[in-house]
Amino acid sequence: MNRFILILLIAGMALGSLTVRAQNARLRAANKQFDNLSYVSAVRAYEEFLRADKKKEPAETREALTKLGYSYRKLQDTRNAERVYSELVKQYTDLDSEIYLYYAQSLAQNGKYRESQKMYSQYGEKQGQDLRGRRYTVSYMDISRFYQDSSSYRLYSLPINSRQADFSPMYYKGGIVFVSARDESGVVKRVFNWNQTPFLDMYFHPDTNQLRVPGSELKRGPSTAIVGGGTDAKGQTAEEAADASQPLTKAEIFSRTLNTKYHEGPMTFTRDQNTIVFTRNNTSKGKAGKSSDGVKKLKLYSSVNKGGKWVEIKEVPFNSNEYSVGHPAFAPDDSKMYFVSDMPGGFGGTDLYVVEYTNGQWGTPVNLGKEINTEGNEMFPFADENGNLYFSSDGHEGLGGLDVFYAELKDGVAYKGVQNAGAPINSEKDDFGFITDKYRTSGFFSSNRKKGVSDDDIYSFRRTCKQLNILVYDAKTGTPIESADVRIMRNGANQDLRITNVDGRAEICVEANTEYEFRAVKEGFALNSVRFSTLTQSAKPVLSVSIYLERTENTLVRGVVKTEVNQKPATGVKVTLRNEKDKSEQTVTTGPDGGYEFNMKPGAPYTLTAQKDRYATKKTQYSKVKKKSKVVTDSLGLYGVGDVYQLKNIYYDLNKFFIRADAAKELDHVLAILKEYPQMQIELRSHTDSRAPDTYNVRLSENRARAALDYLVQRGIEPKRLVARGYGESEIINGCVDGVNCSEDEHQQNRRTEFKILAVQ
Question: What SUPFAM superfamilies does the database record attribute to this sequence (predicted)?
Fold first, then answer.
């Protein structure tokens, strides 16, 4: 299929060891088509040779079967690939190990997991260094884990799909841009020798709301709903429903400037939608470029949108004529871009790489490592709004072909490993080009699950709720407790906070493969919790757990951790309550709301500590609590490296730099912070208004910053903890630049001092 042009050079394996110098004319003709990567023509020629030539040599038959199987594999014709590889395995015992791998893969893509497991086992025996043999042998002992969350999804085959391949959607201005082999230009279009299909272009549908609403009218027809793992109202399977006839919704050519006579797509966009990076064949000034062995590689190109037109098309600096780079995906903050390449030094066929992107400049690509990349092919990356990574792979354990996988990243590392997205997102065929929101509640992906051969289509998905009722009761009376807080903890970290209704019930939607803890909190009761796991699946549509609370005289400590710079809740903060009498500790990690809750026994002093990397540790002391039930609410503020705080009351008289009395009070606040955090280092940043020459203003602001520094030093702060810098009029905050008429009050707003945190401990 066209999307597999990225792995043009991964022909390798035993084909390189076939040294038969064929004398047969039919075999010579077939080999010529094979060497030219014209796999459709090669299949016809090899089948004709095997059928017609009765006097062929055994070595010629083996060569033809090996290359025929490989050609079917490249065309994604898994049924015929299985047939040919089966014949090879039956006839020969000295086959190269890759034959068993390809046979195992084609069996899995045809849903024959037990047979595939046996072939993976044989592959593992012959090729011990490739972990796929061992991993898949174990994985296919029980494939039920791939279906744990399947009942929670509904899929919809989209009416933008054409009779040609349509795949790899990407969000763009309320719609999606996608890749298609359709041709709506009305002129004769060149075809790709590999599979005799048209070259790829980028197309656009302007409204995702039309595409994702089940049963809505989409210009010319409704979506086709597919329920994961079952049948629809007419008794159709998912494949049958997806194959139902539906009118084609019109899609626009995305850009006549970017689309050429060669392949374009997949693509990605920066957050402001004004820069695109897209995949294209190696071309220069309209002419195709080739590698030293005569293959047109893939390259990445960027373009910017000016006045509604895509202009300034240029290559990224890490392209090469000798290997392919493609399938780009920007991180949500545009700080980096993921992409795919078969460049030397990787772990397998194609690997995922990441490259820094700063102010339009590219860094050096870095391989994402063996936690992400395998001996197989990793491709089609996508970073969600949380910065976590989705991609497709045929190297990680899956249902067959390419499966969609998910990796939660921390500092660029998949610290929880790689997770299979499961059915029905994944199938035994190829599933790829996945995009979604940050909670994976809806999105789009592409798959060739209907027929499997040159049949990529785009699907939307929507995840429905697997409901869990959390019931909170009084342990003594058994009555429901209304208005109790239920803290949801997922995999050890705080998440949402829910409140029970008059029936003592709170409801959530649970996710598969997740360990939960639910903590119920109510004044006058001891905090209590219950654990719940979805590592095993229940067929019940609604589940429930119960929490019983005992009345107590303990004190409840609760609060919210916020960042001082903007007073927003801080997530990922480790909050610890330590009993200084018996040295026991309670610890939680804050979630999106920054909240925490603890029980505090009376009669002991306590210390509450909040810690997070690159933030100053915050400690609060509590003296002995009396034996009386109460709630202590204590919000904690964190100071982080890089935070800039404006000292709003530090102003200076015109052309002066001494500290005014009103400014001294604000500096005393900074003094208190520095004394509370003795390892904190700050930069004092002073600014002027725009009046007077630039050089004078820079010198004046430096003097002002120095005056603030001296004030703090005189009051006991070590000079090495302070840096003074003047910025002059370079950072005017209210538009009062040279030539603008402003009042004295407006000018004074620019005569200000800030402090920036440089280091904490």
Answer: Carboxypeptidase regulatory domain-like, DPP6 N-terminal domain-like, OmpA-like, TPR-like
CA distance 726 to 732: 13
* Residues of the chain by 3-state class (helix, strand, coil), percent to 5: 20, 35, 45
Q: Which of 339-353, 520-534, 643-657 has the lowest mean pLDDT?
A: 643-657
For residue 545, give both structure tokens.
């757990």
757 phi/psi in degrees, rounded to 5: -80, 120
As a whole number of angstroms, the distance between CA 724 and CA 667 comes to 14
pLDDT in tens, 689-705: 898 898 998 998 898 89
Distances (CA, A) of 234 to 212, 457, 492: 21, 22, 43
CATH number belonging to the domain at 25-146, selected among 3.40.50.1820, 1.25.40.10, 3.40.50.2300, 1.10.150.20: 1.25.40.10
Return all residues near 506 (Cβ < 8 A) that are at least 6 apart. 469, 470, 472, 486, 498, 499, 500
More confident call, 156 vs 650: 156
Maximum pairwise Cα distance, the chain: 106
Pick the CATH number of 553-640 from 3.30.1490.100, 3.30.390.50, 2.60.40.1120, 2.120.10.30: 2.60.40.1120
Answer for the pair 604, 595: CB distance below 8 angstroms, yes or no. no
Whether 25-146 and 465-551 share one fold: the answer is: no
β-partners of residue 47 are none
The Cα angle at residue 174 between residues 168 and 180, in degrees rounded to 5 = 25
Token digits for 5? 């042009």
Can you tell me the distance from the alpha carbon of 655 to that of 649, in angstroms, rounded to the nearest whole number? 17
Summarize pLDDT for 75-107 with one digit per residue, the tens: 888 999 999 999 999 999 899 999 999 999 999
Instruction: Encode 82-129 in three state secondary structure.
Output: HHHHHHHHHHCCCCCHHHHHHHHHHHHHCCCHHHHHHHHHHHHHHCCC
